[in-house]
Amino acid sequence: MSDTYTLGLDYGTNSVRAVVVSTADGSTAGTHVFDYPSGDHGVLLDPRQPHLARQHPADYIEGLRIAVAGALDRADGVPGFSRDRVIGIGVDTTGSTPLPIDARARPLALDPTWEANLAAHAWLWKDHTSAAEAVAITEAARQHAPELLAPIGGTYSSEWWWSKIWHCLKVAPDVFDAAESWVELADFVPALLAGVDHPRAIVRCICAAGHKAMYSDAWGGLPPASFLSRLDPKLADLRGRLYDRALPPGTPAGTLSAAWAREFGLREGIAIAMGGFDAHYGAVGSGVRTGTLVKIIGTSTCDCAIAPGATPIADVPGICGIVNGSIMPGYYGIEAGQSAVGDLLKWWVEGVCQGDDSLHASLSAQASALKPGESGLIALDWNNGNRTILVDTRLTGLILGQTLHTTRAEVYRALIEATAFGARAIVERMREYGVPIERVVCCGGIAEKNDLFMQIYADVLGQPMLIAGSPQTPALGAAVSAAVTAGAAAGGYDSWTGAQDRMTTIKSKRFEPRPAARAVYDELYGIYRELHDAFGGVAGARPDLASLMKRLLALKENIVVDPA
Amino acid sequence: MSDTYTLGLDYGTNSVRAVVVSTADGSTAGTHVFDYPSGDHGVLLDPRQPHLARQHPADYIEGLRIAVAGALDRADGVPGFSRDRVIGIGVDTTGSTPLPIDARARPLALDPTWEANLAAHAWLWKDHTSAAEAVAITEAARQHAPELLAPIGGTYSSEWWWSKIWHCLKVAPDVFDAAESWVELADFVPALLAGVDHPRAIVRCICAAGHKAMYSDAWGGLPPASFLSRLDPKLADLRGRLYDRALPPGTPAGTLSAAWAREFGLREGIAIAMGGFDAHYGAVGSGVRTGTLVKIIGTSTCDCAIAPGATPIADVPGICGIVNGSIMPGYYGIEAGQSAVGDLLKWWVEGVCQGDDSLHASLSAQASALKPGESGLIALDWNNGNRTILVDTRLTGLILGQTLHTTRAEVYRALIEATAFGARAIVERMREYGVPIERVVCCGGIAEKNDLFMQIYADVLGQPMLIAGSPQTPALGAAVSAAVTAGAAAGGYDSWTGAQDRMTTIKSKRFEPRPAARAVYDELYGIYRELHDAFGGVAGARPDLASLMKRLLALKENIVVDPA
After folding, report:
1. Which of A354, A383, A547 is opposite residue B402, by nearest beta carbon?
2. A381 vs chain B: nearest CA distance in angstroms?
3. How far does CA B407 lie from the centroid of its chain?
4. Which residues of chain B does A537 touch, with a Cβ-Cβ cutoff of 8 Å?
5. Which end of chain B, N or C, is less packed with Cβ atoms under 10 Å?
6. Taking CB atoms and an 8 Å cutoff, what residues of chain A touch B402?
7. How far, in Å, are A162, A223, A281, B459, B543 from residue A214 at the CA level?
């Protein structure tokens, strides 16, 4: 393998990260992070609308300039690196993050006429202003086109494409009318780099289209105009100005334009990989393959798996998305998630206990000294609803089993356990429907820093917990995609597994399940499922609530009596 | 009414309080508090046995000397007071607090032979070392003498007389064998003042006997020897060395001995009232009468009511005790309770939030700004089990409805609400079985200090919450009892209501239920009862758990949408 490099760009909620990666071994030659400004730009909020979260598209362009320039400057200092050895650029972003664009494919908000209107900016993934539209879309699809819901777990979300665009049409019809088209951030950045100047020329990734816009080859692309007309005839009109086909990674989104090549000192015409969501490229950068579950553990958790695309797999009830080609071409991409993981611990430590990082550390240390079952507590991890497998945002948290001696460290541990039980429910559901899971690879800050968390997950899942070698797997995955898109002839790769084998790694540190802990957690998981199914409204749930607190006490007392 | 005075003595867990009270209007002429020392004496604990709580009887005698002398010294400064105008002494104590005594009615622990043995000391009400014995007594009674359980709510407690004495027999048989007899602290102190020098000469109060020792006229006093023999033949032997009759308040426990009269400068031979438990005399001091519920709100809550003794009343399932004459002669004394009230708030504020009194105040202020239903939370108040109406120590706490924005003040309020719902369950149960409750009078520190707490109780119970005029109702009630025991001829009273009308008061400050809050709390109470009945194992419970979180969210959203 010649000494070539690719660039991975990771558009997060608060920053843009650029990484220059060696295609030989995935090592980082240079990296730079651009934090979005917190003043006029940055995440745009409206105190009168707590569910609103927008972003000025100028931030995306400024972030691109500064992060890439910074990463290349760093790489320049690395022996063997030169800018003409960069063979491709890959981009991952948050999503669904749609933005309205004009006839030249420029974001509407860059036009002074529209800049003051929050609806003309990018609608961040976490914008929840479209709750009513999501409910209405789900209802309409249930009645008239249930096939649309099957691959997305049965419920359309307020975080997704059509909910947001429809909400814009309702609350800011002038913005809707002024927009020639709309684009996902994941498609906008590659198109920008490629110098695309017309909306229909933007190459669209199947990742965003399939998971967020109800796109499927099964019904010829986006939802039929007849369905969209039921929502609003203007949405059916918009359909014609969007796109006919969405494509998997590996297909180029374009080549680097002369202008950007000049700006960065890179070669014009190098490959621009298909855009993709951070979780999906994070899975690629974590070495996802058939039988591997990648858990991207952060404020929330995104679970990604793949299964060979040649054999159709069943729709899995409650799994957010199963889309052919969304993670890697030739495979079904299967996505699930938990709405609050790091956020749940943050709520407890910072919100309730009003502590900081040092309290996180001390609670973690105290919680580590506890045995499974010792606290007598059990919790449901639903403070932000349940994304998988119940797909219900209108669920809330529960903590049970408190005495007058219950400590904050015990609750901290119970909350970690609750997220682990939620993770186990997802794994069991996937396996039940034939998705093989033999290996679990984790990435994200919690996986790298919180040993207690990882050990509990190993014990609850009954599975070793591996950790991805790179601390920035989404950017690495985008760089892998760029290397595959460039191809072997250009100094990259012709196969995904070939690229992953060389460019991605697993840390030697891993967490093995401990048999005694696993046995207790099997019992606790049973109790969790009783509560989960009963409060989650699973048909046929038969919890034995009258004995539930006593069973927890019995577990607790067994541990006190027999510390072995 | 001539200017006479009585002395009320209140033996708490941590202190002895003496109060010199005017019989004319219940005003305090002098008061003094003796805090038990925290060194060798004071509450005796054993780090190896967390459920053990004992007290050295020497503390009781020292407390008597110092508290009474101090209160009289204060009273000496009051115009019109003189020690020869003191016409009687009344005593209330914690209970069940039994202690072993020798053939001269002296506490065994005062004998140097036994002092080092913790079993020879007083077994404090909160000593829970006898859990196994309580279960065995309940089981034996269920099988062989179910009538014994009916007046005590169906379950014998580890806090009570026979559990503790039996446990002593098991773990310290030498102490058991050395004891000529056992006495409740409530009977010991009056006997001490009266100079009683033989166990059989101690006058026993029906309050302790009926509520804690399964004494009833219905089966000729204490449980039959045949029943006690099933537990241990030595307990049947002990029965013969205890007592045949227990008597209601109003009957004298004796008269003041020459020695104590000399020590205190009081007249020899003045009336010693029957001893009684703090809660019962607290009810007397709060003006309890037919139709009044007195709530003594502290770390836990004790509810007391009375009903005319002429008409037999049904046993009320789940009510700890219904004993004829236990509060006032001629009335059934009805006792219920909640295991954790102030303790539940203390757990949250001090245990979890790790704050102090100032945090209590600030959380209370923040919680006051919340509307009923606004937090979306509901809790069960079972962190220390449920005393009434489920009578189950093996129940634990539950908090439900948390989001990532749930605050500590919201939880604080939800915990207060949970105790109010628990209080409502008790009131509803009493009414259901024909105990009239038309007026609620509260006493204790929380009632006097926490306006938020009192308003929530008024809203949840749908009943004005009144506050007893005296801050020390148990001691006042004991002083009332002394005035009645002395009788009108001695300058006291011949009737209880006569004495109460003059000596007890209600504060002018009261809390009225607010109709809008009451309506929301009616809904929340319905949800509380679904959880209460389901987790509490009430037969026929049919909770709709699948909709429960959503109903709480709907309440919350209605409040946000319509703040009126």
Report:
1. A383
2. 10
3. 33
4. 545-547
5. C
6. 347, 383, 396-399
7. 9, 6, 20, 50, 37
Tell me the shortest Cα–Cα distance from B347 to chain A, in angstroms: 6
Query: In Å, what is the CA distance from B262 to each residue of B177, B256, B269, B308, B321?
Result: 36, 10, 11, 41, 40
Is A407–B352 a contact, with Cβ atoms under 8 angstroms apart? Answer: yes
Per DSSP, the residues of A148-192 read GTGGGTT---TTSHHHHHHHHHHH-HHHHHH-SEEEEHHHHHHHH
Interface residues of chain A, partner chain B, Cβ below 8 Å: 340, 343-344, 346-347, 351-354, 376, 382-384, 394-408, 411, 534-537, 541, 543, 545-550, 552-553
User: Burial code of A217-250, b = ≥16 C-beta within 10 A, e = fewer?
Assistant: eeeebbbbeebbebbbebbbebbeebbeebbbbb
Q: Look at residue A378 in the predicted model and tell me its pLDDT.
A: 98
Looking at residue A70, what is its pLDDT? 98
Return the C-alpha torsion angle B276, B158, B163, B251, nearest 10: 10
Amino acid occupying residue B553: L
What is the ipTM for the molecules in this complex? 0.89
If you average pLDDT over residues A395-416, what whole number do you get? 97
B386/chain A closest Cα distance in angstroms: 12
Question: Cβ of B401 and A404 within 8 Å?
Answer: no
Nearest CA in chain B to A540: B546
| pLDDT at site B561 | 40
- C-alpha–C-alpha distance, residues A543 and B466, integer Å: 42
| Cβ-defined contact of B353 to A352 (cutoff 8 Å) | yes
Residues 6+ apart with CB under 8 A from A190: A89, A91, A203, A253, A254, A272, A273, A274, A275
pLDDT band at B42 (very low <50, low <70, confident <90, very high): low
Average pLDDT over residues A486-497: 97
Model confidence at A311, pLDDT cuts 50, 70, 90, reads: confident
Which residues of A are less than 8 Å from B344 in CB distance?
404
In B, which residues are within 8 Å of A552 by CB distance? 396
Mean pLDDT of A358-365: 96
pLDDT at B39: 56
Q: Do B353 and A353 touch (CB under 8 A)?
A: yes
Four-point Cα dihedral A134, A137, A139, A141, nearest 10: -140
Picking from B376, B406, B548, the nearest residue to A535 by CB comes out as: B548
pLDDT band, very low/low/confident/very high, at A563 (cuts 50, 70, 90): very low
Q: What contacts A560, CB < 8 A, 6 or more positions away?
A: A374
Write down the mean pLDDT value for chain A.
94
Chain A: closest CA distance from residue B273 (Å): 37
The nearest CA of chain B is from the CA of A16 a distance in Å of 26
- Which tens digits make up the pLDDT trace of B100-123? 999 999 999 999 999 999 999 999
**A2 band by pLDDT with thresholds 50, 70 and 90:** low
Neighbours of B82 (CB within 10 A): 12
Q: Which of B351, B404, B552 sits opposite A383 (nearest CB)?
A: B404
pLDDT of residue A219: 94
